[in-house]
Amino acid sequence: MNAATTTGTPYGTLPSASPLPLRKPVSLPRLQEMRDRGEKITMLTAYDATFAAVADAAGVECILVGDSLGMVCQGLNSTVGVTLETMRYHTESVVRGLQRVQATVWVIGDLPFGSYHESKEQALNSASVLMRAGAHMVKLEGGGWTTETVRFLVERGIPVCAHLGLTPQTVHALGGYRVQGRGDAAALQLRRQAIELQDAGASMLVLEMVPATLSADITVELKTCHTIGIGAGDGTAGQVLVMHDMLGINLGKNPKFVHNFMEDASSVRGAMAAFVAAVKDGSFPDNNLHAW
Ligand code: KIV
Question: How far apart are CA 272 and CA 292, in angstroms?
Answer without folding.
Answer: 24
